[in-house]
Amino acid sequence: MFENLSDKLDRAFKVLKGQGTITEINVAETMKEIRKALLDADVNYKTAKAFTDDVRQKALGNNVLTSISPGQLLTKLMNDELTELMGGTTAELELKASPTIILIAGLNGAGKTTFTGKLANYLKTQKGKKPLLVADDIYRPAAIDQLQVLGQQIGVPVYANLESKDPVAIALEGIALAKQNGNNVVIIDTAGRLAIDEAMMVEIEQVKAAVKPHEILFVVDSMTGQDAVNTAKVFNDRLDFTGVVLTKLDGDTRGGAALSIKSVVNKPIKFVGTGEKMEALDVFHPDRMASRILGMGDVISLVERAQQQFDEKEAAELQKKIRKNKFDFNDFYSQIQQIKKMGNMKDLMGMIPGVGKMMKDVEIDDNAFKAIEAIIQSMTPFEKSNPETINQSRRNRIAKGSGTDLTEVNRLMKQFDDMKKVMKQMSNPAAMASMMRRMPKM
């Protein structure tokens, strides 16, 4: 996401990174290029103009022209202003009430039901909550089935009333069941509706009035750009929602919705969906997103994703094995599974400062680990536990069994040996210190 915008902003900054004389005219030209980049990203024109006017004013007020590193100072100003444009601070869900009632609203096809499942999974695994899902879409035939499948997948109960055609009654029944069963969060998945459909808009207003939700989340497809922002404004006038959810940010989106929506409706973005998996949901952090747009990476989010997937006890055991040089293919396979759960590989690489720009034209297949997994799965339990015993004849058999060729097996064995050596060095504090001392020379 935001690849094109990041590229254009980078080009706009080049004149202020020592590649030309810094003048007030250059700053104005840079702001003009940045405004064009924002408009190309489908950012609202008024928002783009106000943003660049603010940055230009602050840039000249901060003595960018006489700064030793004008490019760096302007980048910092841009980072601060982008953060402010997208909300400034992270907006958390209000979860104090028991049960907390969350109403999900949005257009048809925006990804509401999928998000409802993801949110339940997030609240259960990350916040220790006991959610109940309420299937309140009485119009789309597959909506109830879809929510029940998702609920089963994440281990969260779903309330549905196939006999009723009254969304208000269904929502109230769901809340009553939650109170009875001790569920402390109720997430109500409503039908998709157009803002111009008066009957449907009145219906969701009635649901809101009856259930008195603590949170109303408006789910919007970020790939619809400015249309998403305009729709959000109309829905907000009717529902006064508490936050926005942007779905499909992993798709071919230009990012305009993420950059414009806060300034237009004055409601925070609370979550972003970044894939189909139930784990592919991120709390929206304006400062981290600004850093990523400017190519500065997002190490904090990368670490948080890793912490969510890696078990501390398992990590301690693994560290012991590495110290004793006992790291084997069972451990390696386990690490691959945990990395895969962290999300899209290209997205993860983009979180590492500097790497995002290097990877912009590189396509990383989500099945990149498939061949490696096939090779490891073709090994016997003895071979997985004792990699050093895998001789030439064993390699030939593994290649045939995995549907790969001998070159791929040999490459994996070489990479595995190299990785073991590096891990062994990193587990030794003295060796690690020596490596760090050598880093500047490298």
Please sum up the structure shown.
It is built from 21 helices and 8 strands.
Based on the model shown, name its key terms:
alpha/beta, 442 residues, Rossmann fold, 21 helices, 3 domains, Four Helix Bundle (Hemerythrin (Met), subunit A), flat, 434 Repressor (Amino-terminal Domain)
Question: Would you write up a description of this structure?
Answer:
Helices cover 56% and strands 9% of the residues. The protein is built from 21 helices and eight strands. It has helices at 3-13, 24-40, 45-61, 70-85, 112-125, 143-154, 167-181, 198-211, 226-239, 256-265, 286-293, 299-309, 312-323, 329-341, 345-350, 355-358, 370-377, 381-385, 392-402, 406-426, 429-438, and strands at 100-106, 131-136, 158-159, 185-190, 215-221, 243-247, 269-273, 281-283. Strand 5, helix 9 (226-239) and strand 6 form a beta-alpha-beta unit. Helix 1 (3-13) packs antiparallel against helix 2 (24-40), helix 7 runs parallel beside helix 8 and helix 9 runs parallel beside helix 10 (256-265). It is flat and about 70 Å long. The protein starts with a helix and ends with a helix.
